[in-house]
Write a structure and sequence with these properties.
Keywords: Membrane, Transmembrane, Transmembrane helix. It is built from 12 helices and 10 strands. By secondary structure, it is an alpha/beta fold. The structure holds 2-acetamido-2-deoxy-beta-D-glucopyranose (2 copies).
C-alpha cells in the first residue's frame, strides 16, 4: 500500500521531473536483466540436452528446426517453447522406427537378434503348439536366430542355472544364451505372431539395455516377453532376477510368480535412492494375501516410477497396447495393423480348442512359410481398423474402471505410514 502511494506521488509530480529518473533507470535495468537471463537460460538448456547421449537423426532435426523457428519468429509462446524442449528430453520421447512394409527384409540395424523361448518338459508341445508354429512361420520371413530351450535337459542351462522353479530358471537360461547375440527377444511360450508385417527392430531401443511393456489389464510390467541387450549389466540383472526365486515367503502370501519380483527389481534398478519407498512397496508385496492385495503393490511401484518411461542406459517400458505384444483376449484375438504378437494362446491343436476365436482359417504348415504372406491363412473379419481396436480397448478400460480391485486404487501413503516410520530420516538414502 505504502509503495503504491509513493509511486502515485512520483507519477503525479510533474513539477519534480528529476524524481522520476530513478524509476525509469529501475525499469531499464529490469528489462536488461531479463534479456540477459532469457539468453543464458536457453544456452544452458541446450547444453544440458546435448552431452551424454548419442543423438538420433530425428533429435538433431528437431533441434535444427526449432533453432530456425526460434530465430525466424519472434513470437513463440512460452508453453509451445517448453513443449518443443520436452520433445528433446530423452526420458520423455518415444522413438519409433519405420514400420515394416509388405513383408520387406528386416534390416539388421541393431546387429544380431535372437528370439528365445524356454519350456519345461511337461509343457513342450503340449499347450503351446499353435503359438510356436505361428512364431516359426514369422521367423521364416526373417534372418533372426531362434532358440527354443527345454529347461529340463538343456546342458548349457543346467550347468549355470540350478533354479528349482521353471519361472525363474527361464530368466537364467536367457542370460546364458544372451552371450550368443547382440539383442534377444525373450518370449513366453504362449505368445503368438498374428501379424508378421513387423520387424523386431521397430521395438528395440538402443538408448537402453532392456525393453519391457505394461500389461493391459493391471498395469503390471510384464515379465514374460522382453527385449534384452547383451551387456554385462543386463546379464547381471537377469541373474539377480532369476535368483529372486529365493525371496522370503510366508505361506498364504501372493508373490505373483516371476511377475512380482520384476516390479521391485526394476524399481531398485532405476531409482536406487528411493530406499524408503522401495521398502514400503516391498512390504506391500510381501504381505499380499491375494491377487487383489497384490494390485496395491503394483500401484505402489507405478506411483514410484510415475510417467517416466525411459531410463537412459537402463531400460524402457512401453505403455499398454503400444509394444510388440498384448493379451489377445482383450479384443477376442481381433487385431489391427499395429498389432504384431498376441499373448495367451494356450492351444496345442485347433481341432479341440474351445473358447478360442481363431484369426486363421487353418493351422500353420511351417514349410509353406517364407517371404511374403504364404502360410498365413487369415479368417476374414478378424482384422479390424485401428479405430475399431481403439473402441474395444476403450470399452475394456471402462469395464476396468468398475472392476479393478479396490486395493489397487489407494495410494500407498494412504494405506500405511509415509513419514511415521522413518522420521526424521525419510530424506536420507
Ligand atoms: C538374410 O540375410 C541375407 C544376407 O545378409 C540377405 O541377403 C537376405 O535378404 C536376408 N533375408 C531376409 C529374409 O531378411
Ligand atoms: C486334442 O487333439 C489331439 C489330436 O488331434 C489329441 O492328441 C489331444 O489329446 C487332444 N487334446 C485334448 C485336450 O483333448
Amino acid at each position: 500500500m505504502a509503495a503504491r502511494i509513493e509511486l502515485q506521488n512520483v507519477l503525479l509530480a510533474p513539477k519534480r521531473p528529476l524524481r522520476m529518473l530513478p524509476f525509469f533507470f529501475g525499469i531499464l535495468i529490469v528489462v536488461l536483466l531479463f534479456i540477459q537471463f532469457a539468453r543464458v537460460d536457453h544456452e544452458s538448456h541446450d547444453r544440458r540436452l546435448s552431452p551424454g547421449f548419442v543423438q538420433t537423426e530425428r533429435m538433431r532435426e528437431y533441434r535444427e528446426t526449432f533453432a530456425t523457428k526460434r530465430e525466424s519468429s519472434r513470437i513463440v509462446p512460452l508453453n509451445e517453447d517448453s513443449i518443443e524442449f520436452a520433445k528433446l528430453d530423452i526420458s520423455a520421447v518415444g522413438k519409433k522406427m519405420l514400420p515394416r512394409n509388405n513383408m520387406e527384409v528386416c534390416k539388421p540395424i541393431h546387429g544380431k537378434v535372437m528370439v528365445f523361448t524356454a519350456m519345461d518338459q511337461a509343457s513342450v508341445k503340449v499347450r503351446y503348439g499353435l503359438a510356436q508354429r505361428s512364431l516359426q512361420c514369422y521367423l521364416a520371413s526373417t534372418n533372426y536366430t531362434f532358440v527354443q530351450v527345454n529347461l529340463d535337459n538343456d546342458e548349457r542351462v543346467n550347468k549355470h542355472c540350478k533354479h528349482k522353479s521353471t519361472y525363474f530358471k527361464k530368466h537364467c537360461a536367457a542370460a546364458v544364451y544372451l552371450k550368443d547375440t547382440d539383442w534377444m527377444l525373450v518370449l513366453d511360450a504362449d505368445t503368438a505372431v498374428v501379424n508378421p508385417n513387423h520387424c523386431l527392430e521397430e521395438y528395440i531401443d538402443d538408448r537402453v539395455d532392456m525393453v519391457f511393456y505394461e500389461r493391459f489389464f493391471n498395469w503390471e510390467i510384464a515379465c514374460g516377453n522382453y527385449f534384452i541387450k547383451n551387456t554385462a549389466q543386463s546379464r547381471r540383472f537377469l541373474m539377480e532376477y532369476a535368483n529372486m526365486e529365493n525371496e522370503p515367503y510366508n505361506p498364504g502370501v501372493w508373490l505373483g510368480f516371476d511377475n512380482g519380483p520384476l516390479q521391485l527389481l526394476i524399481m531398485k534398478y532405476v531409482m536406487p535412492f528411493a530406499k524408503h519407498m522401495i521398502e514400503v512397496c516391498n512390504n506391500m508385496w510381501h504381505s499380499s494375501k491375494s491377487y487383489d492385495e497384490y494390485t496395491a503393490y503394483l500401484l505402489c511401484v507405478k506411483m514410484a516410477l510415475g510417467e517416466q518411461r525411459l531410463w537412459p542406459g537402463k531400460l524402457r517400458i512401453y505403455k499398454r497396447a503400444h509394444s510388440w505384444v498384448r493379451d489377445g483376449w482383450l479384443t477376442s484375438n481381433h487385431w489391427t495393423d499395429n498389432d504384431f504378437m498376441l499373448h495367451g494362446w494356450k492351444i496345442e491343436d485347433l481341432k479341440n480348442a474351445t473358447n478360442f476365436n481363431n484369426p486363421f482359417t487353418q493351422d500353420f504348415t511351417v514349410s509353406e512359410c517364407g517371404r511374403g504372406y504364404s502360410g498365413w491363412n487369415y479368417k476374414p473379419g478378424m482384422k479390424k481398423t485401428a479405430e475399431e481396436i481403439k473402441k474395444l480397448l476403450f470399452d475394456f478400460e471402462k469395464n476396468q474402471q468398475v472392476n479393478h480391485p479396490k486395493q489397487g486404487r489407494t495410494p500407498y501413503f494412504l494405506t500405511g505410514p509415509d513419514i511415521g516410520d522413518c522420521y526424521p530420516f525419510c530424506e536420507d538414502f
